[in-house]
Design a protein that fits this description.
The chain is mostly helical. The protein has two helices and two strands; from the N terminus they run ααββ. A two-stranded antiparallel ribbon has the order 1-2. The longest helix has 68 residues. The radius of gyration is 38 Å and the shape is rod-shaped.
Length: 105
């Protein structure tokens, strides 16, 4: 009788051992898949951050170009180059307080 109970317990442990082994392998595969997904998301985020930095740099360069093109000295030089009405800086005044709109007297 004791041998029968002993064999029954060992058989159940063998089945449990197999189930636990399959469970461990399955959990390990899920861990690998989630780790791979997380790494892919990190790479995508890094690439997007790089693209954002490039866009910001391009924006700064374009903003600098716009600022250079809007200077009063450029207006004076282009006016002189095209033989238009001579513009002097003292003839210019700002329309509002934002210092963005310029008009001639």
């Amino acid at each position: 009788m004791l041998v029968k109970i002993k064999n029954l317990i060992f058989n159940r442990l063998k089945k449990l051992n197999t189930v636990m082994s399959v469970g461990v392998v399955l959990l390990w595969m899920i861990l690998l898949a989630s780790s791979n997904y997380a790494n892919g998301q990190t790479l995508m985020r890094n690439e997007l951050n790089k693209n954002i930095r490039l866009a910001e740099d391009t924006y700064r360069l374009l903003d600098t170009s716009v600022s250079e093109l809007q200077t009063t000295e450029r207006l004076e030089n282009e006016s002189a180059r095209l033989n238009l009405v001579r513009i002097k800086t003292e003839d210019m005044f700002y329309i509002d307080n934002s210092q963005g709109s310029v008009a001639l007297k």
